[in-house]
Amino acid sequence: MKYDISQINHLILNRRSVFPKMYTGEPVPRSVIEKMLENANWAPTHKFTEPWRFTVFYGETVEEFARFQSDLYRKRTQENGTFEESKFQKFMQKPLMASCIIAIAMRRDPEKRIPELEEVASVSCAVQNMYLTAAAYGVGCYWSTGGPTFWEEAKPYFNLGSDDKLMGFMYVGMPIEKEYRSIRGDWKEKVVWKG
């Protein structure tokens, strides 16, 4: 099978993180979210562990996620006296700008047949598949590692065990602009050729 390489190159070069403040508020069709998740499922996976796990907050349940993370922030910070009302409000309001939020997790192979790093890398490849799919549909998204990403007490909410990892949240929305520009340094400066 032959592919149009120019389209693939264009898609990769134009994939961007589009942040919630850049969303219109228009809902992203569920069919697009489902295609993002289906394509994520085709990421590389050593020994077929398929470690990616996703929890999807769509429509009204986005508010459920906002309440969860803001309430957990309050609980964690009131105990040690570091609570800030502005951060609490940000945890509550930022998710509401998105049409959908996808919690990204790595479910560790129970037998630990492969290094953890390989499973993290596999989940990252799944996320890239979601990014590219969203870009192909003209949908904006961004992978955030803020909020409860590294809070151990958040794991049970996402049905994660002690060896699993919460790896962040993909915010998804319809972008205000259809094209965003970004820059990268010259790829040749990051490559050493041997031969």
Task: Looking at this protein, list some descriptive labels.
4-stranded antiparallel beta sheet, NADH Oxidase, alpha+beta, 4 strands, 5 helices, 195 residues
What does this structure look like?
- The protein is α+β, with helices and mostly antiparallel strands.
- The protein has a domain at 17-57 and 99-176: NADH Oxidase (3-Layer(aba) Sandwich), CATH 3.40.109.10.
- The protein has five helices and four strands.
- The protein has helices at 5-14, 30-40, 61-80, 85-93, 116-136, and strands spanning 52-58, 100-106, 140-144, 165-173.
- A four-stranded antiparallel β-sheet has the order 1-2-4-3.
- 29% of the residues are buried.
Question: How many strands, which pairing sense, and closed or not: the largest β-sheet?
Answer: 4 strands, antiparallel
Number of helices: 5
Report the CATH architecture of the domain at 17-57 and 99-176.
3-Layer(aba) Sandwich
Lateral strand order in the biggest sheet: 1-2-4-3
> Beta-strand percentage?
5-15%
CATH class of the domain at 17-57 and 99-176 reads Alpha Beta
Can you write the helix and strand succession as a string?
HHEHHEHEE
Distance between the termini: 31 Å
Number of strands: 4
Helical fraction:
25-40%
